[in-house]
Design a protein that fits this description.
The structure holds 2 protein chains of 2 kinds. Chain A is an alpha+beta fold. Chain A has 3 helices and 3 strands. In chain A, α1 packs across α3. In chain B, a hairpin with a 4-residue loop joins β5 and β6. Chain B is mainly β. In chain B, the strands form 2 sheets. Chain B has a 6-stranded mixed β-barrel with strand order 2-3-8-4-7-6. Chain B has a 3-stranded antiparallel β-sheet with strand order 1-10-9, with no helix packed on it. Chain B is about 15% helix and about 45% strand. Classes of the chains: A alpha+beta, B mainly beta. Chains A and B meet through β3 and α3 of A and α1, β5 and β6 of B.
């Protein structure tokens, strides 16, 4: 045991309100440590399901790229932020005290 | 300039707010022959303490099911609702309904962002925040128990 918390990155752990983007939120949480290590904070990730499609410099161009690739289908354009990792941790902690809000 | 002048109710300065698909999305859906769901109409509170406009998630379900575009995940701090929580921001079309019933006098925002937030316990179903108020003149006349929105 190294004391690091264990995460169960499963869409079903997210509350009902977040289910419309549950897969994308899981993908974002999974990729976030690497993106932060690479210095990508502030850029915008285009995510569809389990796939990180790419990174853009602002929301408008990321959204435009999403519409170009996916038309009217679902995708997420997410500004990369370190605080999101801390905020999402409680949802995925392998611990019964995880967030439920 | 149009204006809305209404009495301040027990819950504060409330208006009728319509939330639907962004105008550009409606155009694209019509071009593809897809049905466009009707907007929802709900009571909304003007709140200069709120940074962004929020709506009760249970009311958005029908629009979400019909493909209301999601933009991103946000971490929101709502002390009245229990503190920090994750929420989804949706792209919508907004319309603040003028009490005259004349749609030409409505405040129309063809593409806007709304955050889903559970508000049911508060007695209204949406909060209109500073993102909208910054485009308007808002006067709250406490002694006269009236408010005015100019736009």
């Amino acid at each position: 045991m190294n004391g690091e918390p264990q995460y169960d990155i499963d869409p079903s752990r997210l509350p009902e309100r977040l289910q419309p983007l549950a897969e994308e939120i899981c993908t974002y949480f999974r990729e976030l440590p690497r993106l932060l290590d690479e210095g990508q904070e502030g850029r915008v990730a285009l995510i569809r399901g389990n796939d990180l499609i790419g990174l853009w410099d602002d929301m408008d161009t990321a959204t435009e790229a999403g519409h170009d690739q996916f038309g009217l289908e679902r995708f997420m354009t997410q500004p990369i932020a370190r605080r999101d990792y801390e905020g999402l941790k409680p949802y995925f902690l392998s611990d019964p005290t995880r967030a439920t809000a | 300039m149009n204006s809305i002048v209404l009495p301040i109710g027990d819950d504060g300065p409330l208006v009728k707010l319509q939330i639907g698909f962004p105008t550009a999305r409606v155009t694209a859906m019509r071009k593809q022959g897809q049905p466009v769901p009707q907007s929802i109409e709900i009571p909304a509170l003007f709140d200069s303490g709120a940074e962004a406009t929020c709506a009760e998630p249970s009311l958005l379900i029908r629009l979400i099911g019909a493909g209301l575009p999601q933009r991103r995940l946000l971490l929101t701090n709502s002390p009245a609702l229990g503190g920090m929580m994750a929420a989804i921001e949706y792209s919508v079309g907004l319309r603040i309904v003028h009490p005259s019933g004349d749609p030409k006098r409505d405040l129309v925002l063809p593409r806007w962002e709304v955050i889903e937030q559970p508000l049911g316990v508060l007695g209204y179903q949406a909060i209109i925040g500073r993102d909208v108020l910054e485009r308007c003149i808002f006067i709250l006349d406490g002694p006269g128990k009236m408010f005015t929105l100019g736009y």
